[in-house]
Design brief:
about 280 residues, alpha/beta, two-stranded antiparallel ribbon, globular, binds zinc ion
Length: about 280
């Protein structure tokens, strides 16, 4: 009886010691992570999965056929991309409107756009977004009594898209017009304002630096004169970011060459250091 009590006491003390050690290691790693982010302005690690989910053969074929970004990734990168697409796909509710038919392929391409933009971030699910609502073409908004191609509504946690325009943006890869990238950038931006995880901190800090950069009137004048970034960017700072990211994804070489400091800032915000960017 006494031996049993001693044995139990030792086991209990062992478990407590182990838990405290684990907690110390966890806090130490968290501290290192914070120091790393502050120093290098990017997370120490992005991808870590105990178990990677896989897409079906057909789903993988859709990515191969349609996503040049996916095709440029290494085989390890492709595995990570597929895992993220599968998790994103499972997390969101896809709602068709009017006579739009939501085939699996369409859900996959929308998810792949979100996963591409967040591929340098540790967190990629975007909790600010629950629903993806898709119309066949531009839809009428009663708020401003105009037709819209897309919008992000944080109150409804919904991204609304016109499939015609999303598909065009996805298919034509070099005209700096990409509705999916534009609307998901709004979602990522607002998500970063509401949250405090590493990706959100890196993104928000980068955005503040981007705004400081834009206080340079000569630079803004150069951007306007170049015609590289379309006028809609100058509507407000949110639209500026969403439009500039379309250019970043679709014309990285020209962007880097013409506005290297702006390019670096976007690259830093998204931690976009793969697939030739
Ligand atoms: Zn916009």
């Amino acid at each position: 009886m006494v031996e049993e009590e001693v044995g139990f006491g030792m086991l209990f003390a062992g478990v407590i010691t182990f838990s405290i050690l684990l907690l110390i290691v966890f806090l130490f790693l968290k501290m290192l992570d914070t120091v790393y982010i502050n120093w290098f302005k990017r997370p120490a690690w992005v991808h870590f999965y105990l178990y990677k989910k896989k897409l079906s053969k057909d789903q993988r074929a859709v990515l191969r056929k349609n996503s040049s970004f996916y095709n440029r990734l290494s085989s390890i990168g492709k595995g990570r991309f597929e895992h993220r697409v599968k998790c994103f796909l499972n997390d969101k509710t896809f709602i068709p409107r009017q006579d739009f038919v939501f085939e699996e392929e369409k859900k996959l391409l929308i998810s792949a756009t979100a996963v591409m933009l967040t591929f340098g971030m540790r967190k990629y699910i975007l909790p600010i977004l629950d629903k993806i609502i898709v119309y066949p073409t531009a839809f009428y908004s009663t708020i401003d009594e105009r037709y819209h191609k897309g919008e992000f509504n944080p109150r409804l946690k919904a991204l609304v898209l016109s499939w015609k325009d999303f598909e065009e943006g996805f298919r034509i890869e070099d005209d700096n017009l990409n509705l999916g990238i534009h609307e998901f950038t709004h979602a990522i931006h607002l998500n970063s304002i509401k949250r405090s995880d590493t990706a959100s901190v890196v993104f928000s800090d980068g955005f503040s630096e981007l705004l400081s950069l834009l206080r340079n009137e000569d630079l803004v004048e150069d951007i306007k004169k170049s015609g590289f970034i379309r006028d809609y960017a100058f509507t407000n700072e949110f639209e500026f970011l969403a439009v500039v990211v379309e250019n970043f994804i679709e014309s990285p070489e020209v962007f880097k060459d013409q506005f290297p400091r702006l390019y670096d800032k976007i690259q830093q915000m998204f931690n976009f250091r793969f697939a030739g960017y």
